[in-house]
Amino acid sequence: MSRSRAIWLSLLAWLAVGGFWLVVTRGYHPTLLLAVIVTAALMTAYASAVYVHHLLLIPRYWRTGRPGMYALGLVVTMVGLTGLALAVIRTLYLHSHGPDPDPNGVYVHFAIDLFGMAVHLLGAAGVVWAINRRMQK
Questions:
Q1: pLDDT in tens, 33-68
Q2: CA torsion sign, 16 to 18 to 20 to 26?
Q3: End-to-end C-alpha distance for the chain, whole angstroms
Q4: Would you list the domain boundaries of the chain?
Q5: Residue environment code for 24-56, b if the CB has 16+ CB neighbours within 10 A, otherwise e
Q6: Fewer CB in a 10 Å sphere around the end CB: N or C, the chain?
Q7: What is the mean pLDDT of residues 118-135?
C-alpha cells in the first residue's frame, strides 16, 4: 500500500473515531457546537501526535538508535499538542460560559486529555503494527 493511500485511509479512520467520541461525549457539553469543536480539537491533536510519532520520531530517532531523543520528542509533542487543544477548548468555553468554577479544572482536564492522547497513540501504534505484520505475511 502506498504511503499516500495509507494516510488517506488513516484520515478516514480518524473521522470515524471523532464521530464515535462526538456521539459518546455530546451530553457532557452544553451545546452541539461546543461538542463538535471540543471533539475536533482533541482529534486533531491526537491525530497530529500519531503522525509526528510515526512519520518523524520513529524514523529519525527510534530507528537510528537514539531512544532518549525519541522519548523527549514524544513527550514534547504530546504535552504541546494537548496544551494547544486545551487552550482552544478553554478559550471557547470561557467566551461562551464564563470562567471554570473549578480552580483546578485546567489541570484535571489537561491530565485527562493527555491520558486520552496516550491511549489514542498506543491504539494507533497497535493498528500500524498489526497492519505491518499482516502485510509481511
A1: 999 999 999 999 999 999 999 999 999 999 999 999
A2: negative
A3: 14
A4: 3-136
A5: eeeeebeeeebbebbbbbbbbbbbbbbbbbbee
A6: C
A7: 93
